[in-house]
Amino acid sequence: MKVVFDTSILVSALTLPGGRGNEALDRIILGADAPAISKPIIDALLGVLAKKFGRDREQLARTAVFLVELAEVVEPGRTRSLLEDEPDNRILECTMAAGAKQIVTGDRAMLELGSYQGITILTLADYLAG
Whole-structure pTM over 0.90, yes or no? Predict the structure, then answer.
């Protein structure tokens, strides 16, 4: 199944070895699901990794290459403004452009939606249990 992970899940997967985010990444690597990502999501992720985790340019470049090789990179054609937090709207845009059926997030506002136009929005714990 095609899935989009929000930035917080990706940060967790890339910074906390052995954590639940890393478990989700392992699931993707083993081919259980097919991730999709967009340039705005990659940019947001790299910004967090640089600012909060002190990753240098080389580490950021390797992370970007890893994600591009791992996931289907899509270019959203339509801007959405459903949620107050603009990065959350970028997640929705990516999901719609990819035709993904799931968003995995820890974001409360997104989780309160529950679903959007046939897309299931679920927690990391629910994703891993599925």
Answer: yes
Where in the chain are the domains?
2-129
Burial of 28 (0-12, 13-18, 19+ CB in 10 A): middle
Show the tokens assigned to 63. Answer: 């992370």
Is there a contact between 1 and 35 (Cβ–Cβ < 8 Å)?
Answer: no
Cβ(1)–Cβ(36) below 8 Å: no
The angle formed by the CA atoms of residues 92, 97 and 100, to the nearest 5 degrees, is 75
CATH topology of domain 2-129: Rossmann fold (3.40.50)
* pLDDT at residue 81 in the model: 79
DSSP label at 31?
T
